[in-house]
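Backbone Fold Data
Goal — fold tokens
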Amino acid sequence: MSERERAAVVESAARAGARVADEFFRTDIEVETKNGKTDVVTHADRDAQREVIEVVRESFPEDAIVGEEEDELKAVPDRGPVWVIDPIDGTNNYVRDIPVWATSVAAVEDGAAVAAANVLPALGDVYVSNEDGVWLNDEPISVSDEDDPEGFTVSPTVWWSFADRDEYAGICEGLVERFGDLRRFGSAQATLSMVAAGQLEATVTNVETNPWDTVAGVHMVRQAGGRVTDIEGEPWTPESTGLVASNDTRHEDVLAAARRAIE
């Protein structure tokens, strides 16, 4: 099938998974922990991922699946068609009744994303990207054209372990030294979507990221005219260490803030 057909399935699958997740939002749902007290999961995560996979399989039954939950692949293969799924990106927000969370789906071909959708049902927002551009609620969007650092709002994203909180502090210090304002939203996909929409100028982390937290949003930022690199300034890939996404007017300044954590 064509990239356009994959893009249509990306959006329909993300919407379907988001509907399942939204059914349980702000209900008395049981919360489990995985690798830490704030690394949480619910049956809504698993149910939503299964729904996304079911929609994908209707059109692409043989494609590989990378998914955060259950026994799906955990890394993006270098070759062939792949679907990258995060059923609830921002589960810690979700279980605290905070509406900033997303169901994320990306279609990848030979290691590169070709289409993506981030659906934020509690906010009523749907971000979609394909070969032609990026849209928020069917309206075309692009990165901010702000080039004055004092006008920048930047967000650190992807959480740090307790052992590395000094690095998080270093990044925050680097950001407040250089830029006008700071945010943290608790959902990497939502944050990357905001960069693509010009709602933020940049987002940074120096930690290794998971593909389900990043691939869709990275595609959106790039298609919206932004730049995404690793911590060293090289083009970002799912195997990269660190992620620095910006509107590309002051990318080197954002990189310098990100590197503050490891200097």
Remarks:
- DSSP finds seven helices and 14 strands in the chain.
- Residues 3-23 form the longest helix (21 residues).
- The chain has a mean pLDDT of 93.
